[in-house]
User: Fold this.
Amino acid sequence: MTPKKLWRWLAAVILGSFAVLIFFGVEIYRKVPPIPDKIVTTDGTVVATGQDIKDGQNVWQSIGGQTVGSIWGHGAYIAPDWTADYLHREAVLLLKNLAGKDGKNYDSLPEEEQVKYQVLLKKELRTNTFDEDKKEIIISNERAKVQAELASYYAKLFMGDPSMEKLRDQYAIAKHTIKDPERMKQMNAFFAWSTWVCSTNRPNDDVTYTNNWPHEPLIGNIAPASLHLWSGFSVLLLLAGVALLVFHHTKNNEEELNKVLPTEDPLRKMKPTPSMKATLKYIWIVSLLILVQMLAGVITAHYGVEGTAFYGLPLADFLPQSLSRSWHVQLAIFWIATSWLATGLYIAPAVSGHEPKYQVLGVNILFGALLFVVLGSLAGQWFGVMQKLGLVQNFLFGHQGYEYVELGRVWQILLLVGLFLWLFLMVRALLPALKKKDGDRHLLILFTLSAVAIAMFYGAGLMYGRQTHMAIAEYWRWWVVHLWVEGFFEVFATVVAAFLFTRLGLLRLKSATVSVLFSTIIFLAGGILGTFHHLYFSATPTAVLALGATFSALEIVPLVLIGIEAYHNYQVSKSTKWIKAYKWPIYCFIAMCFWNFLGAGIFGFSINPPIALYYLQGLNTTAVHGHAALFGVYGILGIGLMLFVLRGLYPEHNWNDKLIGWAFWLINIGLLVMVTVSILPIGIMQSIASIQEGYWYARSAEFMHTDTMQTLRWMRVPGDLLLAVGEVLLVAFIIGLKTGWSLKDKR
Assistant:
């Protein structure tokens, strides 16, 4: 197929997919669970107002939000999912009260009598009592009493009651996480409402707003038929997609490797321009961020066994788990993104041979701006989590509470401005090359479009406000996480890798161009609408579940040929003598293929079908996929791109293979050991508990702090140590390029 036809297909896929994504986004807006003006009892007593619920959402965000347990399954893993925890406690207390009204003790009743009260409980909790005209949710007096009891329980937990010290430690919640009783009252209102969403049937339907999530047999929250149906369909579609892709590859396979290889490195004689040299400081900052992010990860992992201390040091007093985890995730995104931005700034003038006027000044200004955003957002998160900001100030400068977009709104805006500055610097340097109608043009256009998408799609994080409905905020948040991080960054990286290999004369330009365009079409065909697989249980309509299941299966299809891509990269690494200078960047690309197949493919699809995610969402199975995909794919690819840039900045010497070799293997082996020896077994055991007992139990302190689970947590240490040593050696290698200990003889 010609590049021209492939461009048409790509345009059709993008336009069609976004039309559907936006159409069903409108459906999410239309069918969100109502936030009432008031929650009242049957006798008219006001339990909470709608403003209490909205402010309570902001209080929850201010303490770290999705870094302190989770809501609707989205968030951290140490503390419970608060909706599942609240629902189970509410159900148990109501059962006792219902039996108590008849003078009976529910726990001592025979099973057949317990069933009677479970029927009454289901009627109490699942009946939708929202009055559309009055904008009120009406609850019974008995339920209001239970909610008051739960409000007291959560106040003791979050506000420092001594009787809750052990449980706080198990949940890694710092003492006095919430200091103001009024804020605590508001957060309790938010907990009660978000749980009401999970237990209440949609109007004229027999499933809850969250498609019967979480699994809670006591109230009849079991997997509905739609989950089984669309899970089966997704597997069938995956098999069909794999068969078609293999057929296409077999029929149209064209050798990409160049048969006539250059006798020497085509890029060696290229002299870095001032702006290209200026990207070195980005790499130094990436190195520093890697170390800080690693340290934050070590602290966060340790909080799983010693919730409010670090080997006896009361670290949670000034660095609670919610903050260390926020920094760990946010710094990962910062250093990975910075390494890719630096690569773009380096490649643009290298490709065009044109250094625009004041380009180096722009690169330096962008560097200062990124540094300001990184340091400012981390400081703002500390002030927010430590409850030193008002709710409005926290949203603007502190902690937004949403995973992967934790930084305050002002920092989000500044980062978006920085991304557009990066885009401007890239495009102005590429313009001379884009004007040429040569063989590079298709790759350059795709490279430019992916850069435009990277700048634009981060802006989706600005589409929700401080008190936007959670279901709507989740919709836009996953535009950032899935489309920005997992989508267009991957397109950008694919194009960069292909472009580097064609510039080195190792790949045939025409076949590489066709291959990249085809891969992008296949990836985005599933990837754009695959965004919905994150929203199965985020109070979205069933149609979203159907689309997410269908297209997330298609996301896996391109990964079946990942072994061929890895083999091609390996062939490249052995193709000619001078290519040995690029051994470790290419090895990073090979490792990225491995992690793409394992982390994004196997671990990703194992939790993607609706029936699987129904039981597994927010368990450590998600952490397995997250670590293997985010660090294994994007992190190692970022390291590979960084090494390519360093190869160009230090062209005259061979590298110390022992130092970078140890770093490479320790990073990859450490990540594999950490994921498979500790996190995966924990996730499997949680999965069994979730299926057998209920989701609340899989996240409970009772289950997570058994001796077996604690032992599995400690078994993470060997993998963490290997990974940490590998990262330290990587940074030592980068420093050594400047000092000389990472260099050997001249090339």
